[in-house]
Amino acid sequence: MTENWKGWKIVLASASPRRKELLEQIGIEPLICPSHQEESASAEKPGELVMELARVKAEDIASSCPEGTLVIGADTVVALDGRIMGKPADEEEAFQMLSSLAGRTHQVYTGTALILCLGEGKFHGSSFYEETHVQVYPMTEEEIWGYIATGEPMDKAGAYGIQGAFAAWIKGIRGDYANVVGLPLGRLYHEMNNLVLPYEEEKEADIN
Description:
Blueprint: E1 9-12, H1 17-25, E2 31-32, H2 46-62, E3 69-80, E4 83-85, H3 91-101, E5 105-119, E6 122-136, H4 141-148, E7 170-174, H5 177-181, H6 185-207
Parallel strand pairs: 1-2, 1-3
Antiparallel strand pairs: 3-4, 3-5, 5-6, 6-7
Function: Nucleoside triphosphate pyrophosphatase that hydrolyzes dTTP and UTP. May have a dual role in cell division arrest and in preventing the incorporation of modified nucleotides into cellular nucleic acids.
Family: Belongs to the Maf family. YhdE subfamily.
Cofactor: a divalent metal cation
């Protein structure tokens, strides 16, 4: 599957173990190099916001990468009625988030940015976002606090992880499951091909 990107060093500009595992699922062993750039964006719509933040992360890392590197940046948010939820600051905020999601359908947006480092200060990239609808069963206060006590919600957008214990309250999803975990794998695979293949074909033509 990864033959198309052979020769390219792939860097994930994120410390998320979930994103690393997703990439490994499709045969990509990324170098982990998280961006520490301050996350600030001017966009207000969830999809545009996550794309902008993903680009900020990818550009930060790509600026110091050598030629032949493909950098992947990503950002995920949860939105309910247009209100954006990032990671909870504390357990009380996690409780508020989960209480608002319980018994409702919300959206998860993951923005992804790809940057090819071509050398001599030249870069080429693309960005996109995917949206998945997630329906949650009603939850009692006791269930919410019990889930928070696991510690799982504290580093996740919307205060839950669909791949973890919160699966007990997922009623259904419409869209890409992997997108909720942190990377829209199917879209990412095809976008990487669309970005890399023209350069591989150009190099092949130069050789011939």
